[in-house]
Write a structure and sequence with these properties.
The chain has about 375 residues and is mostly helical. It is built from 16 helices and 5 strands.
């Protein structure tokens, strides 16, 4: 595939025509990859469906998605894995993964580190996606898989705000982003755990929040801050109004985890299963194709935190997860037992929680500088 002109310099129309030809060719490559047919190589029949039954076979990416969902990985993991698999195949001339092996995998990972200058965690994520492709999808378990080098991740200390900095940050926020940020700091939940809260998981009588299906698929309980109880009740009331409006319009069915929708056919319309922080508008679910009201967009909170950080004069880089780090550190500083904090955070190993001891009492692991003696 190339663009040629009979003589002289190309005109604007010829240039546009060539660009469109290239675009069509690239789309054809991706279409062939999606459909699981030929990889558009030198074979004259590449990219052509030879049999009607071949056209009914799922594409490679469809098989990858199906396997990921069978193993109940998160939607973000699905998006990340399919993205890396696409990138790996496109960087190798759209060859089928069965035709490639350790050399191509190591070359791809090296290019990410050398040319892309990606972090070690990003490189390891790409490797995990490729190992998933070969082991779980293609059912190929070759000796070279265990020999592929994993990048060594550097242990990073978490960014922690002081109590005063948290107050200044929250003072510059308002509305639902303020409620969410306050809840993150007051309960220690992860961002998506907070956004995915269901109405039934708030226990105002016990001042308790039940976190369902957290990291690692585990449930746990954490505290419901009394200082924002009134605001949370207003959020629940707002969710009830939106749910009632959706029901009147023929919607109102929320997405349920796993197979609960089949087991309890009417549970999706029950108010207890609705999100505490519903989105302002309904949207189409990418997996089911149904129209539902999803939870509040995390990007809106991220932008609000960024503006509040600038307005409050905080120089530390921060995100929603910084509030979780600050929650754990401030509890340790207040003298609470590390095992209790481990349970509130949902850490599997107490060693993960011990990282917050680096800021106890004073800087430098609690050792006084000789200059201050």
């Amino acid at each position: 595939m190339c663009c040629r002109w009979s003589s002289g310099n190309p005109t604007l129309n010829q240039g546009i025509s060539c660009w469109l030809t290239c675009l069509v060719w690239l789309n054809a490559c991706e279409y062939a990859f999606e459909c699981g047919v030929g990889m558009l190589g030198n074979d004259k029949n590449a990219g052509v469906v030879s049999d009607v039954s071949d056209s009914l076979k799922p594409g490679l990416i469809d098989v990858v998605r199906s396997r990921i969902r069978t193993k109940r990985y998160s939607l973000r993991t699905e998006q990340a894995y399919t993205g890396w698999i696409r990138r790996f195949i496109s960087s190798n001339g759209w060859r089928h993964p069965r035709e490639m092996g350790a050399v191509e995998v190591e070359s791809f990972l090296s290019s990410l580190a050398v040319e892309g200058a990606v972090a070690a965690s990003t490189q390891n994520q790409a490797l995990s996606a490729l190992l998933f492709l070969y082991r779980e999808v293609l059912k190929i378990d070759l000796p070279w898989m265990d020999a592929v080098f994993r990048a060594k991740s550097q242990r990073r200390l978490p960014t922690v705000l002081s109590v005063e900095e948290v107050r200044r940050l929250l003072a510059m926020m308002e509305g639902r982003p303020w409620v969410l940020a306050s809840l993150l700091y007051g309960s220690g939940m992860r961002l998506m755990e907070c956004l995915r809260l269901r109405v039934k998981d708030l226990d105002f009588a016990r001042n308790e929040i039940t976190v369902r299906d957290g990291k690692g698929g585990k449930d746990r309980r954490t505290m419901l801050p009394r200082s924002i109880e009134e605001e949370l009740r207003r959020e629940v009331a707002r969710a009830r109004v939106l749910h009632h409006q959706d029901l009147e319009l023929g919607f109102g069915e929320t997405l349920l985890p796993h197979a609960l929708a089949r087991k309890y056919s009417n549970a999706g319309r029950d108010f207890g299963w609705q999100f505490v922080f519903p989105a302002a508008r309904r949207s189409i679910d990418p997996r089911t194709g149904g129209e539902h009201r999803h939870h509040f967009d995390d990007a809106v909170l991220s932008r609000a935190l960024k503006r509040a950080r600038a307005a409050s004069g905080i120089t530390k880089s921060l995100s929603a997860h910084t509030l979780r780090h600050s929650f754990a550190t401030h509890l340790l500083e207040a003298g609470y037992d590390i095992r209790t904090i481990q349970e509130l955070l949902g850490h599997k190993d107490v060693a993960t929680t011990q990282i917050y001891t680096h800021v106890l009492n004073r800087g430098g692991r609690g050792v006084r500088s000789p200059l201050d003696v």
